[in-house]
Design a protein that fits this description.
The complex is a heterodimer of chains A (273) and B (349). Chain A has 273 residues and is an alpha/beta fold. Chain A folds into two domains: 91 residues, Beta Barrel (Elongation Factor Tu (Ef-tu), domain 3); 167 residues, Nucleotide-binding domain of ferredoxin-NADP reductase (FNR) module (Rossmann fold, 3-Layer(aba) Sandwich), CATH 3.40.50.80. Helix content of chain A is 18%, strand content 33%. Chain A contains six helices and 17 strands. Chain A has a seven-stranded mixed sheet with strand order 12-11-10-9-13-14-17, sandwiched between helices. In chain A, a hairpin with a 3-residue loop joins strand 4 and strand 5. The longest helix of chain A has 13 residues. In chain B, helix 6 crosses helix 12. Chain B is built from twelve helices and twelve strands. Chain B has 349 residues and is α+β, with helices and mostly antiparallel strands. The chains are: A alpha/beta (273), B alpha+beta (349).
Chain lengths: 273, 349
């Protein structure tokens, strides 16, 4: 009886292992419908018989024939676990995209400092794609990426391309020393002391595990960034994506319909992580 | 819509009215007594089964518009799978709805039908439902406190018909065009009510209002919760008495939270259902990766109170999230029901 909650059927066109625990799925509507998705929006995916769960979209664009999501497998996650077992050609349900996404108007003309932790890179990736397609509209583009260990690095081929560009400053750090890693060691905030930014021109986009947020906020404030210029993409458990199920509500904000992208001035009073 | 006409109905004609109401829709839902004596809203076939001497039912009649468990769609496996919507719900007359529950339904209307997305499951029930309210001629229960919530003991709007017991008869007020259509169909049972009926009813309302306990004082709790911070000890004390059972949410006619789950039938068909959920339950906000922003009962108690009583939520949803039905008073094993929570917030202790 429900158009709001009925998914469309999409097929898994490609399944690519990114890491031992993450896969990127390419989803194509079986009826040939095109999908438009702004950077930072999310979808709800159904593995029929297991359930439905929200996922960030890893690609963005207008009228796309397919979109990508990158999903970490969790043993306790009924949907993520089932998704990872699916082969190309399998069918899943898709609703959305939902949510506000990043406000590009607000970002154009500014230097962008992207701070991502682990799979926090996923919602940042479509924003990077967007910026690179209209690079002249932005100032500096910096990515500070922190992962626990080198094996967790996503989108490696793309990362190499990004690092090769002279208009994209990419720094990667791993939390602890590792035999396979010659680069910077330490959590992502350890990249901040050497960071030179113009706080008046800079917008920080911060996505990662909740434990990362207070430290990155403190580091950004130390660099002179205003709370309005720190932008987060939040994650909450969701069952509907459309502001009805109640699960993602934090105080009077719904992460699904008011977000998932918020600036820090909007959420600093919400007192939840 | 304000009452546009009013009639009187002699008490002995009530079964005839119920009979007619039953003919207006696929089903008539009304209060009936079931063993061992509880009154519940249920489908009735015989008007004689309907009882009117009930306080308030433990489960609100809103469950007939927002069911505890409901099919959203079903999927037939295949290449590709076929998604089919659930069946349209039957049309229904909901008879005997207390004003507090009617007020709750107005909140559900605003929540489910308003905003960016309209909930078409709720809309399907709502558009097929006629509401016949029954005012409280005496306080329905020692536990209710509608007088604190501006939601009773009679309704000013939101009904199709409203019945008020007046001296062995009923004042029948019409509140909508469908209500007027029913009144027209029942013209042989109804007589136009003179002005004195409304006056008598009004006097009775004042009496009931005086008899109700004004124990909750929600406005003061709302001010306190929305302004200065409520001391953390208040939430800790509530959390220490809360069993985390979710009972308050499940009986609350204003609570709307749900989860969805897939059920695989023996023939392989998969049914997506949605069912009531509660923000008081530990797993409510737990994510697949294990992160849980509200692991403590005290945090969930604060969430529950904030959503129902804080200005930013009231502003968003139009009304406070409590209608004073008193059901949480009945079910809370820890005794931390809304009137007490409101008092603890107010006193900050």
């Amino acid at each position: 009886m429900s158009g709001l909650y009925e998914p469309q059927i999409v097929s898994l066109e490609r399944v690519e292992s990114e890491t031992p625990t993450e896969k990127t799925f390419t989803l194509r509507p079986v009826n040939g419908d095109l999908i438009s998705c702004a950077p930072g929006q999310f979808v709800l995916l159904s593995v029929f018989g297991r359930g439905e769960a929200p996922f960030c979209v890893a690609t963005a664009g207008l009228d796309m024939p397919a979109l990508e999501v990158t999903v970490r497998r969790y043993p306790d996650g009924r949907v993520t676990d089932a998704l990872h077992d699916l082969e190309p050609g399998a069918y899943v349900g898709l609703r959305g995209p939902f949510g506000n996404g990043f406000n590009l108007e607000d970002l154009r003309g500014r230097d962008l400092l992207l701070v991502a932790g682990g799979i926090g890179l996923v919602p940042v990736r479509p924003l990077i794609h967007q910026v690179l397609t209209e690079r002249e509209h932005y100032g500096r583009l910096l990515l500070l990426l922190g992962v626990k260990q080198p094996s967790e690095l996503l989108y490696r081929r793309e990362m190499d391309e990004w690092q090769a560009r002279d208009d994209f400053e990419v720094q990667v750090t791993v939390d602890a020393p590792h035999p396979d890693w010659q680069g910077h060691v330490g959590v992502v905030t350890t990249l901040f002391p050497d960071l030179r930014i113009d706080p008046a021109r800079t917008k920080a986009i911060i996505v990662g595990p909740p434990v990362m947020y207070p430290f990155v906020v403190a580091a950004c404030r130390e660099k002179g960034l205003a709370d309005e210029d720190m932008i987060f993409s939040l994650e909450r458990y969701m069952k509907c994506g459309v502001g009805k199920c109640g699960h993602c509500a934090v105080k009077h904000k719904y992460v699904c319909t008011d977000g998932p992208v918020f600036n820090y001035a909007e959420i600093r009073e919400l007192e939840e992580r | 819509m304000k009452a546009c006409a009013s009639y009187s109905l002699r008490a002995e004609q009530l079964p005839a009215l119920l009979q007619r109401l039953g003919e207006c829709a696929d089903r008539l839902i009304a209060p009936v007594r079931v063993p061992p004596g509880d009154v519940v809203f249920h489908e009735v076939s015989a008007p004689a089964d309907v009882v009117l001497d009930f306080g308030n039912t433990l489960v609100s009649p809103v469950a007939w518009l927002y069911p505890p468990w409901e099919e959203v769609f079903r999927v037939t496996p295949g290449e590709p799978p076929l998604v089919q919507p659930g069946k349209a719900p039957p049309s229904q007359v909901l008879f005997g709805v207390r004003p507090c529950d009617l007020a709750a339904l107005q909140r559900l209307d605003q929540f489910f039908l308003g905003g960016e997305f309209a909930d078409d499951l709720y809309a399907a029930h709502r558009s097929r439902t006629l509401l016949v309210a029954l005012t409280c001629a005496t306080p329905a229960d020692s536990r209710c406190f509608c007088s604190c919530c501006d939601s009773g003991p009679y309704a000013q709007e939101g009904y199709d018909l409203q019945l008020s017991p007046v001296d062995g008869s009923y004042l029948v007020e019409v509140g909508s065009e469908p209500g007027e259509a029913i009144a027209t169909r029942c013209a042989d049972l109804l007589e136009p009510a003179g002005e004195q009926w409304a006056r008598i009813r009004e006097a009775r309302v004042q009496e009931v209002f005086g008899e109700l306990e004004h124990k909750a004082n929600l406005p003061a709790a709302i001010r306190r919760l929305s302004g200065e911070a409520v001391p953390a000890e208040v939430w800790e004390r509530i959390g220490s008495r809360c069993l985390g059972c979710g009972g308050c949410s499940f009986v609350c006619p204003v609570c709307t939270c749900f989860y969805t789950t897939d059920q695989t039938q023996p023939d392989g068909t998969i049914v997506r259902v949605r069912a009531w959920d509660s923000c008081r339950l530990a797993g409510y906000t737990r994510e697949a990766g294990g992160h849980n922003p509200r692991p403590l009962r005290s945090q969930r108690a604060e969430r529950f109170a904030y959503h129902k009583l804080a200005y930013p939520c009231i502003e968003r949803e139009g009304q406070p999230g409590c209608v004073g039905c008193g059901r949480c008073v009945t079910v809370c094993f820890g005794g931390v029901h809304m009137p007490l929570v409101a008092q603890m917030i107010r006193r900050g202790e």
